[in-house]
Sequence to fold (956 residues):
Amino acid sequence: MYELNFGVPMAGAVICTLNAHHDAAMVSVLLKHSEAKLIFVDHQFLTIAEDAINLLSQSNSKSPLLIPIPEPSEDSSHSPGLNYESLIKTGDPCFDIKWPIDECDPIALNYTSGTTSRPKGVVYTHRGAYLNCISSILFSEIRTLPVYLWTVPIFHSNGWCLTWGIAAQGGLNVCLRDFTAKTIFEKITRYGVTHMTGAPTVLNMMANCPLADRQPLAAGQMVCVMTGGATPQPPVLEKMEEMGFKVVHVYGLTETYGPATVCEWKPEWDELSVDQQAKMMGRQGIRHIGTEAVDVKDPETMKSVPADGKTMGEVMFRGNTVMNGYFKDLKATEEVFAGGWMRTGDLGVRHADGYIQVKDRLKDIIISGLENISTIEVESVVYRHPAVLEAAVVGRPDEYWGETPCAFVQLKDGASADAEEIIGFCRARLPDFMVPKSVVFGELPKTSTGKMQKFVLRERAKAMGSLFMNGGGKMLEI
Amino acid sequence: MYELNFGVPMAGAVICTLNAHHDAAMVSVLLKHSEAKLIFVDHQFLTIAEDAINLLSQSNSKSPLLIPIPEPSEDSSHSPGLNYESLIKTGDPCFDIKWPIDECDPIALNYTSGTTSRPKGVVYTHRGAYLNCISSILFSEIRTLPVYLWTVPIFHSNGWCLTWGIAAQGGLNVCLRDFTAKTIFEKITRYGVTHMTGAPTVLNMMANCPLADRQPLAAGQMVCVMTGGATPQPPVLEKMEEMGFKVVHVYGLTETYGPATVCEWKPEWDELSVDQQAKMMGRQGIRHIGTEAVDVKDPETMKSVPADGKTMGEVMFRGNTVMNGYFKDLKATEEVFAGGWMRTGDLGVRHADGYIQVKDRLKDIIISGLENISTIEVESVVYRHPAVLEAAVVGRPDEYWGETPCAFVQLKDGASADAEEIIGFCRARLPDFMVPKSVVFGELPKTSTGKMQKFVLRERAKAMGSLFMNGGGKMLEI
Fold:
């Protein structure tokens, strides 16, 4: 997949990397929507691809040519038929690169991970990819000859544009098939990894893995971890820094080529308590050098909210590193660009120093009585409970309040806590109206890129019914 | 001058910084040619500017408005009339930045330092400046919050585009009025300088300054020095590395926004001898990420020379970080772009690994008999003589050979050597035809940006007459 991020555009084509967790039905939908002509498939996903192509042919759609990628150990020269390695061998080393005619021509098509709706095809241009790639290596301080560990999927915004960025700096790419904390620590030590990237869940996995699976960094080894995709929780940040990692918190969407803002560390934060530092680091920060503008605006009036750290608005972007639009979906494109800015669907605030902070997804925020409750803020408190591995808070329907916060919690292995304890812990740290009224324990549903699937949890909370018992608003805890 | 690199373009105007060493006559020529509307003048150059404006008005040309920049210590609020500080005070803090309408609109006009002919006005675009600025901070590894010492003049290619680059990374600018090795070392220690830039003559000054004027770097302090403008000599590179500086050798011209190639260090060079390493570092290297293409071509046929490290051709550039053209000089623009590439006037070779190396200026190379002699190669040997501070080699007319190498040498303070010794030193290290046949001692003439004024030396060599005495080609050494 890494090689194809170069070979496909250099052949004048557009690369569309598919999520490795899709099933055949989804793959067939995306093959059809993307009008793919060739599909390169790693040997472990061959059945899914073949099933997808069968589905396509049943619907009378033109099927792409399937090119299997054999196992690296296989001697592919003896395999029958066309495969990736045999195809490469037929190549002309003097092939003239097909440069784009216009730098705004597409280089990639990325389907969004679809936490809510059907995936949308985000169109990247050569210009945008170049600028975001350069910006990402700059703010994450990826210097010459980095050693990069791929803990973010390359099918996710072309690896946050770092597929190209690592090559630009002459880096070594360390890839993973076995995605466990143990393997991650092993690779970091073995290859002298300097940079990696991952959703907060990856950091969480590393911070909470058994001691036996951990390996300390080598003397003088500094690993910079870019994290984003969800707001990292302060306890996880603290733990990572403790283990010697330098965490850089970035924020962006598939629509912004991956990272668009960075929580640039300020020297004056050195004086803060560890706790305060982690809070500061949880901010989404300021635009990076390739982002023309980020703002927090009232989505109705399009006016910027005051920089008071309190007034919420929608986070919006503008510039070269914002997608061209959604492929074959003019309606969705017009909606997301309504008012001349790209609307993220994230609710946030602007602090006095210009740093932005995301408080919630527009559709996740809980409206309880007259109050807006940021589920991210409630989660950050639940996370601080020592028994909690991961937590997600959603609104639970309530006949009196409209909605009340409901916490879904996954405990650490061997740890124990009951609902009462979690609620008490929150009550000591949050205003009453923000305290979860119910707590549910169990494993949390996530997308393949590590994003919490809150719509699944909202369904569960809905199925639980209203907590409201009588007119006095008395609450029962489960 | 640093502030004006931002304020002028943000006001929608074009900045043209003039060389601080020009006299009133040259300044008046450039004010007229550039059609300047305002001239900001540091207090120490007021007389020159006033004289230049007088000259302008005598020639019936429209004079720009002169705005003096008072001494920082002066309380300018009491000074009569308009000055820089009082002008700034009238500014509107809510002024809307005047963005360029097109990114290819000009941002700066830079007059070349003019080693040979009348200065030419090189036009920079916003697009090119952005790309070269980003590239420069990347390859010189200028990370977040650098401390930058201005040892390269800001009037030289807008400080190699680092005026903007240092701001992009949130850096601290340390400026110098007193340009001595002693002050340079003092500022490095005092401000914890992380990066600086300078012509090889600056490095030479630092490497050869009295021990009493030197200050060792602080423990853990790493200073990265970008050097370019002339080929740095191996002994100087060795000495700088010895003192703990990391030297990055870059190559470019005013026409390429400053640096266009960089001699990127290769890990396998770590195994070479110090001497060999310095030789490798003397190469001009490979294009940086903002340069579309660099090539070494036969200037007649426009064919690339073979990558054999021997065949010479003219170094040529193409891409976004090449100037728009010379202001109001279509003829010179057409000449320099003849064949679709920007011709540098530098002769070089391509090595097998793709690194280029400049051997000489097209006009400096010595043609002796049937041989082309690279004056840079001869100089690099002369430089290795322990008594030599600086050296420049030019062709001296010769009735038999056409030209023979003549070395102009400036000795280190207190050191001594005669012509015979220098010639003998070279004979032991160079093929006979490259050995200087004459040596002249004394101070060497340089431009304000530290470039050797070889045309002055060629005049001197010419005035010395031919060495040829009789038909046998017997040489006399002076």
